[in-house]
Amino acid sequence: MAYSPSRPTENSWTVSELTRYIQELFNIDYRLQDVRVEGEVSNFTRARSGHLYFTMKDAAAQLRCVMWRSAAERLFLELGEGDAIIARGRVSVYEKQGAYQLYVEQVTPAGRGNLALAFEELKRRLEQEGLFASEAKKDIPRFPRKIGIVTSSDAAALRDILNVLKRRCPLVSVLIAPTLVQGSEAPAQIVRALRWIDGRDDIDVIIMARGGGSIEDLWAFNTEEVARAVFEATHPIICGVGHETDFTIADFVADVRAPTPSAAAEVSVPDGTELRAYLSGLQEQLLVCIDRWITDRYGRVEALERNLRHLGPLMRINNSAQHVDTLLNRLDNAMSRRLERLHGRLDLAQTRLATVGPQATLRRGYAIVRKKDGSIVRHVAQAGAGKLLSVRVSDGEFVVTVVADGHMS
Amino acid sequence: MNSELDGMRFEDALAELEQIVARLETGDLTLEESLDLFERGQLLSDYCNGQLNSATLRVEQLTEHGEIVEIET
Asked: Does A53 share its domain with A182?
């Protein structure tokens, strides 16, 4: 100790001297240059300058604290009365007030270190049990009729979800099961809301949502009871908690993890515009198909018609007519020739007849003699004396009287 | 208008419409069958469009007293 009072003879220190001495004691202790202190916040004040003044205490002691504005601006949570925190900084002496203080650089909620550990431990344990397994995850329905939402009823997350649903697919309806989403009572409420909505048979999918926040704010979704309730649910669950970079245990267990509540809503329903376009496409396909059917069938009918004209009855009738004509022709020819032949034979017969007929004989000088009754005289006995007989010669006939009976030769 | 489809799930109507189009595409149907399918397809298509166009988001919420009430959005 190099210090000594300036008035050695009186062996007394000035206040400043003593204070400075004490300060030196603090300054040369390296451990006090960077300490972490756990305690409860009280007498909290924010000065207009932006500097924070408060006291940290526990059951037996108190510690004055100051946090300069520059450090205070880096705080990610509000410091409030009664908060259990871990403050990190340097302990030194504020001479003016004769007090030692913690000059705070950084504040984290007490148990934060515990929180991270608890998170990792629970995550590991549940993963081993198989709660995160992709085989266990259910598919979300393509066209849900009703969506169940587990969320805080007065938070932006719900409004965001409803806006997305209204825009994207107002065809669905929504049933909200309100719940606290942070704080110590949140896990039990979330589980109750989840079980209630999962028990309903009119909903097809569940969205569990919460807006962004610190790990402490989101902590309910890192609890084992919520994780198990999500796993045991019979309906598929879309988890949209926090911001894009927040991963809670519920996210790992859920059937689908969405980065935000809005994203969860987008994932849960099909896009109405896409649907309309798809429907139009189907409608057009209907028309194209029926059109194609008709064209195809019509083409076939035409082809058949052509074939028919070649092989059909009309053709056969025409063919027959021609056949008949041919036949008639042949008949004609045949008839003519027969007639000719007949004529020929007739002529021949006539000629022969003429040759063997009585006329030639008569011309040779023979005569035909007949009695009065017309019968031909062939015998002498028929021509008695005094009988009148007609005599026919080649060019006519005359009558004679028989002068004397004839005699046979 | 489409009283015979009343209450039909949008999803089911769409699925049936898809099936009808698939059948019509095969082309080996009689004229009667094709026309029947075509008409049914039109009916379903109109129904689906109607559902899409007339939809407004219905929102219900569980109250503290355990009732379900419709809320305005």
From this structure: no
CA distances from A66 to A36, A69, A354 (A): 14, 9, 175
Residue after which a domain boundary falls, among A255, A286, A318: A318
Asked whether the predicted pLDDT for residue A3 surpasses 80, the reply is: no
ipTM for the complex shown: 0.83
A175 and A314 share one domain:
no
pLDDT of residue B1: 46
Full residue range of the structural domain in which residue A158 is found: 118-270
Residue A327: inside a domain, yes or no?
A: no
Residue B19 touches chain A, beta carbons under 8 Å:
no
Residues whose CB falls within 8 Å of the CB of residue A230, separated by 6 or more in sequence, listed in order: A194, A208, A237, A239, A250, A253, A254
Q: Which of A143, A162, A293 sits opposite B73 (nearest CB)?
A: A162
- Which residues of chain A make contact with B18, given a CB cutoff of 8 A? 282
Same domain, yes or no: A97 and A122: no
Contact B60 A176 (CB under 8 A): yes
What letters, b where the CB count within 10 A reaches 16 and e where it falls short, cover A262-289?
bbbbbbbbbebeebeebbeebbebbeeb
Pair A137, A265 in one domain: yes
- The number of domains in chain A is 4
A272 touches chain B (CB under 8 A): yes
Asked if A279 lies within 8 A of B27 by C-beta distance, the reply is no
Q: With an 8 Å Cβ cutoff, is B56 touching chain A?
A: yes
Query: pLDDT (tens digit, 9 = 90+) per residue, A142-191?
Result: 889 899 999 999 889 999 999 999 999 888 999 999 999 987 678 999 99
Q: Which positions 309-338 of A are in contact with B (Cβ < 8 Å)?
A: none
